[in-house]
Every structure is written in structure tokens, then in C-alpha cells.
Design goal:
The protein is mainly α. The protein has helices at about 5-25, 45-70, 75-100, 105-120, 125.
């Protein structure tokens, strides 16, 4: 497996691990028969963790498709790997800023992540111009 493919797996783990600690720490209040109970997420940190978790679910498909498309179209693997690692680092920082209630920085990081993801996606289109 390539580094980029491991980053796809890392992105999957990241969005799962974003919400898991909140449920684990507050396990006495979490009712597994009602996992989407809005009352559980009334706590500000739990609500922000849920928001970061949902955003991770939203961004994951585009990232996974972009990486696989770039690899299948035989773009420079080192560049794909570097961009995928950078995307994962930005996403980790995004989660911390989301949970830490830093909306402006969070939005900046989201946009940076989107630009990186878009760059991976369009690598096949600019492949002939790359070394």
C-alpha cells in the first residue's frame, strides 16, 4: 500500500476517533439505544465533536476518490503521497480547532484542506506538466 492509501485509512480513523472519546468519557449519559439523541450533544464540546465528526464523514469520499483517481491515472506517487499527508495533517488540525471553538481558524483550515484535495483530484489533468 502507498502512503496516500494509508492516509485514506487515517482519514477514516480520524472521523471515527473524533466522536469516540466524547461517547467514552460521557458513557454514563450515552444511551446506545438512542445514539442520535440530541440531548447527549447539548454540551458544547460534545456538540462540536459531533460537528467535526459529521464534517469528516462529508469530506472522506472526495478525499478517497481523489487519491484513488490520481493513483489509477499514474500520477507521480511521491506528489500524491505528500499531498495526502498534508491533507491529513490539516484535517487533524481542523478537528482540534473545531473542538477548541476556533471558528475562523477552522474555516481557514477547511479551505486549505479542500484546496489540497482538489489538487490531488486534478493531478491527472495536469500530469503531463509534472516532472
Amino acid at each position: 500500500m502507498t502512503i496516500a492509501e494509508w492516509c485514506v485509512f487515517g482519514a477514516l480513523l480520524l472521523y471515527l476517533l473524533t466522536i469516540a472519546p466524547v461517547k467514552w468519557i460521557r458513557f454514563r449519559r450515552f444511551d446506545n439505544s438512542r445514539p442520535r439523541d440530541p440531548g447527549f450533544y447539548e454540551d458544547p464540546i460534545a456538540g462540536r465533536a459531533l460537528g467535526a465528526h459529521l464534517n469528516g464523514i462529508e469530506t472522506f469520499p472526495f478525499f478517497a476518490v481523489a487519491v484513488l483517481l490520481a493513483e489509477f491515472r499514474q500520477c507521480p506517487q511521491r506528489l500524491i503521497d505528500e499531498l495526502a499527508v498534508l491533507f491529513l495533517i490539516v484535517r487533524i488540525a481542523y478537528v482540534f480547532t473545531y473542538i477548541g471553538n476556533r471558528p475562523t481558524l477552522r474555516s481557514i483550515l477547511w479551505n486549505i484542506g479542500f484546496v489540497i484535495n482538489t489538487a490531488i483530484f486534478f493531478l491527472p489533468a495536469i500530469r503531463r506538466f509534472l516532472p
